[in-house]
Amino acid sequence: MSLRKLAAETRGLESLRMWGKVLGTCGDYYVAEGQLTALATPPALPGSPDDDVEPRGQGANRCVYWITSGGFEPWKRLPHARASHVQAARSIKHMLSGELSKDVVSTPWFPGREEQLLRAQIARISSTCTLAPRGWYEVDEEAAVKNTLRVVEGASESFPAPEELATQGGWVHAAPFLLSTGKSGWPDLEALEGKISEEKAAEISAQAENEPEKPLLEGIEADLEELKPEDAETGPAWSIKTYGDEGVYASGDGTKTLRVSALRSMIWPGAITVVKGTRFANLYVGYGMKCGTLVGPEKESGLPLRGTLPLMTAPEDIMEEPADLEEHEEPNPIQDEAESDKGDVDEDPDA
């Protein structure tokens, strides 16, 4: 289960980290996330089998994932995420079992086994819950692969203050957003000119206009903004708490603090981002299911958030102690009986 062994045995590996743990009914999955050297590939024709899978290094396949059941079990690489699997995963609610080869019994039908469902859920969670402090990353415009991020030069020196990291305004999404198609973007019509019909190109243009791509490094304060109560100052998608000593101490030429800020996702229970000083990390430990009971219902319909499951219920409000009742005398008090004279037969006092 050693990450060092996995890194030594994997060619072309650029980075590797512990992504988290997905819980199952019969077993759990430990998940490792890595980035391999991205390959520039020609665009696939819309509707073709290759179009269902984004190239390595892009969108849902920006990273590669390995899983193990723990102990001395070897790491197994998961397949690339398919857009059709991501779309189908949004329509079902299924508890994972811990067996990759097990059939997924669900309604609607899922076009794959548990291995494909696990990969689709990892793609959805990573897209929503991979965060970074604002100003840490920037889009690499010179990279050959679209939507490639790089660390800003001097990012450690200009790291946001602890007070800023304790607010939603100090954080951004560091992974591509997945559209309703299950992919992060629309086909490049210029590169496909002459390869698809004009009707197909017009259809893609209309879809892209109705659902535009979301830019990278978008702030998290806009998440579920439509569910934000009128009197609330922050969005309902994230909960932020601060732990530890909040004091600021002199350290060399600068200052340091022992404060730890933690961000928890309210729609993917188990997803957390923590930061201390200039170091931050993302981790997920949960059942791989989206939850809608920790955020408010949709304002128009009053129904729970679409595509969620009431897996975790919020505790009921604590009732106040009832008011004490006024004491009254017994309306029919018990009369004391006359003491016995210890004779053979007690005489009736009323006789």
UniProtKB/TrEMBL annotation:
Gene Ontology CC terms: radial spoke
Comp. bias intervals (Acidic residues): 317-329, 336-351
Subcellular location: Cytoplasm, Cytoskeleton, Cilium axoneme
Keywords: Cell projection, Cilium, Cytoplasm, Cytoskeleton
InterPro entries associated with the record: Radial_spoke
The species this protein was found in: Effrenium voratum
Location of region: Disordered: 313-351
Cytoplasm keyword on record: yes
Pfam families: Radial_spoke
Keyword hit for Cytoplasm: yes
Name of this protein: Uncharacterized protein
BP terms from Gene Ontology: axoneme assembly; cilium movement involved in cell motility
